[in-house]
Design goal:
Elements lengths: L6 E4 L2 E4 L26 H6 L9 H14 L12
Antiparallel strand pairs: 1-2
């Protein structure tokens, strides 16, 4: 099994961003390549997946919001700055 993971080096310890799926204490071969620091494309959406899973009735409320947006007038609203 070969997987590509990213993480942060702390001295002789490599902190991975996700579980490698390997038993603790198992020997592995590691190749290190410095990163430019920018996240991989799609990482943000993967981290946010399931964020609302524990919110009761989220699907119902979200569907209601979507329906309200569809039935709202398509004209842009004027922005007024409060003073």
């Amino acid at each position: 099994m070969i997987r590509r993971l990213s993480g942060v080096v702390h001295g002789k310890t490599n902190e991975l961003r996700e579980d490698p799926g390997i038993a603790d204490g198992e020997y592995v071969e590691v190749t290190i390549k410095p990163s430019d620091g920018s996240p991989n494309w799609g990482d943000g959406i993967r981290r946010s997946a399931g964020a609302a899973a524990d919110i009761p009735d989220f699907d119902t409320v979200f569907a209601l919001i979507q329906e309200q947006r569809k039935s709202a007038p398509s004209q842009p609203r004027a922005y007024r700055r409060s003073t």
